């Protein structure tokens, strides 16, 4: 069995308040000792919505969070706590997306929660909606450093414009997927609508992640194609195909593996029918091609 590195050990921690010597650092001391007198458990005062936060210092795709509950007293205090993961410090990080709700962890036991690669720099554990003490005897986290989203530095265009749905919205770094949140693109209803990202130089593209609209009509994206290459023939839509999007659930983000396909342009096109094209975020990972001088550094 390969033991994954506990990335929590290199982080920085804080919490909503301090009871006695129960400093937040105790939860990342590498010690699952779970009796209070062993000096390895955190402790807040009896706060409304008490929380503990780990700053990983960099953004990670988080696979698991393992929490050890106190053994010698009151394990039920942790019931209903939430694990939140993300990059925001709004509400002290407690409003980041939720990985899991802790229904209960038996006294002195360590329980692992699967977070499926959720992206974030901050891991919060918060007890919402009531006044409580928060005690954690260990928090362990596994994951990988998040790859840079190279789409953010690109330039974008699309086949037409419906309302304020400009193509730049798909690379604004925000996966918000309700139209009213002003983060989704929108073309007119047209034959073969498309959106194109110019990465400014040629990359070997590893992945393309697309976020679909949540509040309406997710089926519009069914059958769209991801095209990657260096040609602008047919507006880039005739470049080699990375993937066909069979379907993406409303509001969800799906990652497509492109296995190092080379290209400066990433197109998303709905071929063969009249449709609206809406994209709430497009994220791309990859490495610059060794020699891109022929393309020029614009």
From TrEMBL:
F5/8 type C domain residues: 137-287
Single Gene Ontology BP annotation: regulation of complement activation, lectin pathway
Keyword Zinc-finger: no
InterPro entries: BG_Antigen-Binding_Lectin, FA58C, FTP1, Galactose-bd-like_sf
Protein keywords: Calcium, Disulfide bond, Lectin, Metal-binding
Family, per entry: Belongs to the fucolectin family.
Role played: Acts as a defensive agent. Recognizes blood group fucosylated oligosaccharides including A, B, H and Lewis B-type antigens. Does not recognize Lewis A antigen and has low affinity for monovalent haptens.
Subunit structure: Homotrimer.
Protein name: F5/8 type C domain-containing protein
UniProt source species: Mastacembelus armatus (zig-zag eel)
């Amino acid at each position: 069995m390969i033991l994954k590195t506990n990335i929590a050990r290199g982080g920085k921690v804080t919490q909503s308040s301090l009871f006695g010597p129960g400093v937040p650092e105790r939860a990342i001391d590498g010690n699952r000792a779970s009796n209070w007198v062993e000096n390895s458990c955190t402790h807040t005062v009896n706060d409304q919505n008490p929380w503990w936060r780990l700053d990983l210092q960099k953004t990670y795709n988080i696979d698991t969070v393992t929490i050890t509950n106190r053994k010698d007293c009151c394990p039920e205090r942790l019931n209903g706590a939430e694990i939140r993961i993300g990059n925001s410090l709004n509400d002290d990080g407690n409003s980041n997306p939720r990985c899991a709700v802790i229904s209960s962890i038996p006294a002195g036991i360590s329980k692992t929660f699967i977070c499926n690669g959720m992206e974030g720099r901050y891991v919060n554990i918060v007890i919402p909606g009531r006044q409580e003490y928060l005690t954690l005897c260990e928090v362990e986290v596994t994951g990988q450093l998040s790859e840079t989203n190279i789409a953010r530095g690109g330039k974008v265009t699309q086949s037409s414009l419906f309302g304020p749905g400009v193509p730049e919205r798909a690379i604004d770094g925000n996966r918000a997927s309700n139209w009213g949140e002003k983060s989704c693109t929108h073309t007119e209803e047209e034959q073969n609508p498309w959106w194109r990202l110019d990465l400014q130089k040629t990359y070997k593209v590893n992945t393309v992640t697309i976020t679909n609209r949540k509040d309406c009509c997710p089926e519009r994206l069914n059958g769209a194609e991801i095209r990657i290459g260096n040609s602008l023939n047919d507006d880039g839509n005739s470049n080699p195909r990375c993937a066909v999007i069979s379907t993406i659930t409303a509001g969800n983000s799906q990652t497509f593996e492109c296995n190092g396909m080379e290209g400066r342009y990433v197109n998303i096109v709905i071929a063969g029918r009249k449709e609206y094209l809406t994209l709430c975020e497009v994220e791309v990972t990859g490495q610059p091609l060794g020699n891109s001088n022929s393309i020029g550094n614009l």
